[in-house]
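Example complex used in Figure S2.
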Amino acid sequence: MKNFAFVRARSVKEAVLSLGTDWNEAAVMGGGTDLIGEMKNYVHTPNKVVNLRAVPDLKYIKQDGNLIKIGALTSIAAVETDTLIKSNFAALSKAASLVASPQLRNMGTIAGNICQRPRCWYYRDSGIECLRKGGRLCYAMVGENKYHAVLGGLGCYIVHPSDTAVSFTAFDAKIKIAHPDGEKEVNIEEFFVLPEDDLNRENILKPNEIVTEISVPIPENGTKSTFIKVQERGVWDFAVAGVAVSLKLDGNRCDKARIVLGAAAPIPWRSLDAEKELEGRTINEETAQRAADASVYNNMPMTGNAYKVQLFKNIVKRAILELV
Amino acid sequence: MGMAKTEYFAKRIKTVHEEEGEYRIIEIILPDREAEPLGQDETLEIIGKPHTRVEALDILTGKAKYTGDVMLPGMLYSRLLRSSKARAKITNVDVGKAEEMPGVKAVYVLPKEQVNYQGDIIAAVAAETEDIAEDAMRAIEVDYEELNHVVNVDMAMRSNATQIREGGNLSRPRTSERGSVEEGFSQADKIVEAEYSTQFELHQPLETHGQMVHWKDDEILYYKTTQGVQSARDAIVRELRREYPDENISSNNVRVVTNFFGGGFGSKLGANNFVAVTARLSKITNAPVKMILNRYEESLDTGNRPNSVQKYKIGVKNDGTLTAIELEAHGSGGISSGNDNLTTPTNEMYTCPNTRTTVGSVYINAGNKKPTRAPGYPQAFFGFECLMDEAADAIGMDPLELRKKNYADKSAGGTGRPYTSNGLMQCYEIGAEKIGWSRRNKTPGSDSGVKKRGMGMADLQWGGGGYAGAVIEVDIFKDGTVNVRNGSQDIGTGTKTIMAQVAAEELGLEIKDINVQIGDSNFPPGIQSGGSNTAASVCPAVRNGALEALRKLYPIVASRFNVDPEELESVKGRIQVKDKENIGMYFKEAAALMPENKVMGEGRRAPNPREYAGATFGVHFCEVEVDTETGLVKVLKAAAVHDSGRIINPLTAHNQVVGGVNQAVDYALTAERIMDNYTGCVTNPNLLDYKVITAMDVPEIDVFFVDIVDPYWNNLGMKGLGEPPRIALAAAVANAIYNATGVRFRDIPITPDKILEGLAARKEGGS
Amino acid sequence: MSKSHQKDSGGDNGFSRRSFLKGVGTGVISTAVLPGVVSAGKYAEKIQSPQEWVTSDAITLNVNGENRRVTVESRATLVSVLRNELNLTGTKNGCGTGECGACTVLIDGEPAYSCLTLAMDAVGRKIVTIEGLAENGQLSPVQQAFLEYDGYQCGYCTPGQIMAAEGLLAKNPNPSTEEIKRGMSGNLCRCAAYQHIFISVAEAAKKGGR
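Predicted assembly (1301 residues):
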């Protein structure tokens, strides 16, 4: 790892002011589990690391009116085991429980989890200058792409690696962002960006912005949710495919649906087509199948990942039927 | 045989010696006197009973010093600069910036004009800290002139492929033949043809390769991660002599030490390509230099199990009789020559008079092969044992029955020498019962539901009976304590513990009285730990060494009681006249009477009997669950039944089988080195994307050893156990997946993409 | 199939292998962290000056109940400091990137990978390594169980496995088999002695865990 200046920020303000405006200059460190990996692989070689551990009041899970608010530095393990989250957001709790390994869940923060960089092996190889790193070629397009995107990848075919981001999207979470002039809050769907909008970043954060809080509205009565992760190993693996489904049900009738695919696209992929197939309808084998088929509408598989299309259909259907 | 004979005869014979699948003629010295074989019904105090490891405390408290843990005063750290290109001419290497860095003590560029795979070593640095060494390594600038590369085996075989070496990408295939396959096929009722393929596997020991070298005056000391301290020493001497023709480098001033060893699985046999460069840095800097590879380097350049493509044709009669087997196969050892031996199941496993095998190898721009736990066998047994399943299917026979039908009690498919013992029939009975073989789907794929269960089985065979060559020094000190010394090493299998058990048994002492010293090339001739050979090579010699030491102690006791030394025995801490407890004294008393401060027994092992063939056998059964919607396969349960002769330590033996079976699960389902054709780079040189088995993937495993003490192989009736547990399970898993789904998967690892595509193809095919 | 994208980021943007050469010099050594901050504006001025950046520092780590003072670079990971500075070589470095678990230690009671923990980030937290378990030569129940049930083969992953088990049992003294598997699932054993590890943890729990 290249040496760097270690800055212990003691407030959010200090942190964002320390970060500056150049991605290559400074990096923000929450749990550090993704960042240090990137730095050890020389994929990212910042001159300065701004550490948030000493920033107070960023570690909490609390109810505020209709919202559950999660502080940015809350560990993934805490999200996994918290009873407020378990009772309101089963799909989030489950997604958190399936992240990486126990140690990484202890160390990793929830904001870090949704902000982690892609796991595309071409991106992670410092010897390869891929499109996302400013090069001229997406190597996955002509190379080994069995884990790559089947949806939304224009130019760059990474998949977003976060499990919890998929569930957050299914719950219409809001992301609070601090910047040198204050803070703002955006809907999670505005937070993530596709390669067609930004080839180099997965979200809207600027170099001197950090996530400080994720707030999630408590679902209406009758809402049930689940999360399915398909990983080749039983643990410590990134998803080959994932799905979070949240349904507001009246009996078996679906009033409102959120269906979000993970490891499908460069962002958590909300499938409006699939949701439409369910809303206002009774959930059964047939409607679940129709939603499953619609969930991958417009898919564009590459040489090695066509199997993911069927895989997504299968797990979307399974997840929907799990809830009735 | 036995104790009664007292004549001493040291003579030499020539024998065949098997190592890493290669045979060569060597001359060995016979033991002076061979201990009486311990038979099936022998009553033993320590051998055959579970015992915890003698090195446990060091390991469990963190005190154990593995190679990377050794710290020497004034030591430097080394890093290696490796090629980022798969094939390129090196036009310039600029070390200026690296040399100028504070704390950098030496930079050395290897005399190399071309790199031939990603990870090929270009230069080395030594510096005061690990981080400075890393910085300096990265400050070296290399100019490459890239050449076309080939990293895909199929592409390398094409006629228009870039030829990556003189002599071409293909080696001349080796053919061997027994009987006439044409005649055999003409006798068959059914002929089954199928092609199987297996992936490149990486060893990925958790302890990466490394060494600390201190070249001080005329002594060169290596702390090294090696499975053979003495074979490594010999290789180092050869290599350093080549590099330093004017220096005094010989076996008596090069010493290799491996105190604790963090897994190797074959990759740490022999020397490595980095062996000399650290010594050079030590010589230049006049300091000890430590060089430990990181995981990236470990993944690229410490060896691999070659891939394989196996095309089979098998003839079978309706009653299950095998009439002919033909195999045409190839695989790649990367940039190194040769392929693994893929012929054993075809030629040896079952009675079949007619076989023909043709095996070729292919060169690609990737790191060298290295022996990988049972070199060749997991590949070959995957193909062949799936083929047996398909043959059974073709004649409508239970796959287990087909195997029983073709049981071979002689080697060479029933045409060679008789086996000393072959416990396969017992293995079948036990395994079938433990897995509940009768519960399996009679019609493959008939299990209803989304998650389908099925059962499969596969046989295995391995050599691994050990050989002569080890010399054990057994020292009895005046205070009654005992040292057992040998130039072998413990690679995690429990070698030290079983040596202590055998010595304690023979000396009539307790394990705590025995101090086993191994892992130092200066110790008496040892065995390199490969091929499941260590235990059965060393332990019989330990017995002889202990007896030899006792024979030097007995006269002292015999003269006290006025008896013949031959009448004495050493049991339960006493040396006494056989069966007369009252005539004798405590072992410690006897030792105290010794005129010198210790006696030394030297033990050798008799060669394996030439009139017999020796082999280890086993059967693996398993039950799997296939999620037909996700493509995920879970191995629920395995029953592993082994004939490895007498088991010295059931505790560590059980562990050994568990580990082998678990490793085979990732070979079957998840682990594969993946290379990118365009860049020529490995896409997964890490432990995240190279998916070895985790705690959440392990099956429930029933381990059994058939109760057979080998009557002829050596004086303990033991055989090897290192490789056998690793051989059969992948085929058993594939057969179980077939039993579950009705779809045959002939290419491992069987990942979700293959399962889903296979199931979809079947649906479309409408079968 | 691929639509050509509009943006051309223009090649080398600093991610190349050599970009570290352009990095900040490591010669500036300060023995204190950044000075206290009075106001954001003042702070912003300070931090924009590379000369104020701390690339090396004397820190105090609490390891196995003792305070240990070491001078380290910012990039020094905890595993490297434990091994190379404090001579606590029981903690192993198997992969360096949180993919094997051999470097597991307890930080404030929780299992964590010391290869992904900066030493500077471990200041003020309680670190326990394998060397800190046995008291007066008496093995902890977890260590004792690993001994008796042969919960290892080569032993290289074992310190990490034991620390993971200690952390698991501290939180959950009576884990089910499934909870043991999950709790131990952040530690690879390449010898794959997993079933022996599970039994060892279960037996340690029976005997009162820690």
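The domain at 223-322 of chain A is CATH 3.30.390.50 (Enolase-like; domain 1). Chain A is about 30% helix and 20% strand.
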